[in-house]
Amino acid sequence: MTELKNRYDFVLLFDVLDGNPNGDPDAGNTPRIDSETGHGLVTDVCLKRKVRNFIQLTQEKKPGLDIFVKEKAILNVSINEAFKAEKIDLNEKPEKAEDGKKRDTKGRAQGSEVEKGRAWMCKTFFDVRTFGAVMSTGANAGQVRGPVQLTFARSVTPIVWQEHAITRMAVASEAEAEKQSGENRTMGRKSTVPYGLYRAHGFVSPHLAKQTGFKQADLELLFKSFAHMFELDRSAGRGLMAMRRVIAFKHGSELGNASAHSLFDRVKVAPVQAEKPARSFTDYTVAVEMAGLPQGIEVMDLV
Q1: How confident is residue 175, by pLDDT bands cut at 50, 70 and 90?
Q2: Which Pfam families has this protein been placed in (predicted)?
């Protein structure tokens, strides 16, 4: 596969209608919000989860496209598989450790063994070679700093989330039914954002890509996942979510031809009527300033 030879910086614009894009478990699962400005937030972890889910659903059983951090996974089991695949017995006597050093702990890799385990994990798992991972638990496959990094997403304008009372016309047990005097009705709460347009930023480093084996084909699959990740992640709680724009700046070199922030500043997103609450994507304008674009920069409008 072709090595990644260009730096990329990109902007993600996605929206939510009558849903909760990323609940905060420390606040009763209400939508995350910047308490000082009122802007809505979606964590980078949430966005990467959707990418992982897309890859897992669409690339299942394809070599090199497994997912390390997936639902109900036991991470140490996957790490152990790396050393089994490399035929490294971590239970050998201390003096038989591969690099000749005394093994500090039985069942735990050391020295060059860690690097072999790390390399196998990068080769096998898409999310490890893309986002990186901490794999120093269990048998110890070290740590990987991924070439692709994402920021929190922040709503373009402040949001006002709403809480709704909901009713379930059933109870879970006979004892609960007796307390309800035969009505068999339970009450709950549901939080939604009426509408919010969110903006996140991302970075792709070809230097780190060389260390993890992240190739051009992996990048293309990543961009494809951005376009489709909300389509395969529907739920009543998240309402109607859609990726509206993916704008990537491709640099003509590995080091880059301009600073990321100067390129991001060229993507202008503004409400059409600032005094009116937004309720659709058409209530905003999105423009990319092309005048004076630094030499060597290519703008790619992927969605």
Answers
A1: confident
A2: Cas_Cas7 (PF05107)
